[in-house]
Amino acid sequence: MTRAPRIVVLAGGVGGSRFVLGVRGALRARGLDDTASALTVVVNTGDDLWLSGVRLQPDVDSITYALAGVNDTERGWGRQGDTERVNHELQEWGAGWPWFTLGDLDLGTHLARTGWLREGLTPTQVLERMSHRWPLGARLLPMTDTEVDTIVVLHDGSRLHFQEWWTRHRATLAPAAFENPGVAASTPAPGVVEAIADADVVLLAPSNPVVSIGPILAVPGMRVALRDSAARVVGVSPVIGGKVVRGMADVCLIAIGVETSAAAVAGLYGARADGGLLDAWLIAEEDEHLASEVAGRGIPALVRPLWMTDAARSTALAEAALAAADV
Ligand code: FO1
């Protein structure tokens, strides 16, 4: 391919951030300077919430901070070297959630975003504005401009916001179901369908399939856009050797009746040829024995090193995903 490839990544969370960094790294390794015009990231906004009067967009911020190199790599969320003075003050007032930390620098982001939203900018316009501060090397688009929640329904019928279930209860309360109020009435954010239609490849990051990729795919029009695109759709398994790489995605998978296995997640996304999404699925060397099961589901399986333990490995994984689409 002589022109720069057009790549769309669907992503959310820490796995999404690392993978997006890898894709940018792979483009840079090919000598492409203007990676932002080649790489569009459609970000999950199902984790978003209002808290203490500000709009939080955890996945948008995780990916922005990671691309900017200002993320807290140990915690996996928030800003590196952040302090918690305002958070302490909020706790003294009994405002917000005592189990949920809003860092001082992070709050600057939330205040800026909330101000612009209140002035009438759409989330897409806010994100575009926020992308100017640092040279991100990618165009970030929210999955939709309308508010979508992720609600965890427990077996006793009680309902919690995803962030409460995740951060307060550390996903220890067994979920019966996940719901995304607002998603049925949502539409893909401006530019999303066009980016998918124009893409050479769409990559499904190794993000949580249920609460990160799931809400993106649940936006009406998203699956149709993927199916109609000439782009090859390549996914990367978030499960290695029967375990989720990070986070608590296994609890989420169990709740929707999907086994924690690279083959089962491939089955969840489905084969493009059968009306699903995938043209190819990358599985780890530890899961080589599952390649035939994935192939049996009509999805070509490629065995590659999936651990993104450093930037070089993330870049190599992204390069393998691009190569799987002949990009
Ligand atoms: N995760 C935590 O485990 N504890 C927190 O106090 C916390 C605060 C927080 C504030 C802003 C933000 O953007 C993310 C934050 N996260 C926190 C991470 C977040 O809950 C999840 O990891 C993601 O939503 C899952 O992708």
From TrEMBL:
The keyword Transferase applies. HAMAP family: CofD. Keywords: Magnesium, Transferase. This is 2-phospho-L-lactate transferase. It comes from Microbacterium helvum. NCBIfam families: F420_cofD. PANTHER family: 2-PHOSPHO-L-LACTATE TRANSFERASE (PTHR43007). Its EC number is 2.7.8.28. The gene is cofD. It comes from the Bacteria. GO terms for molecular function: LPPG:FO 2-phospho-L-lactate transferase activity.
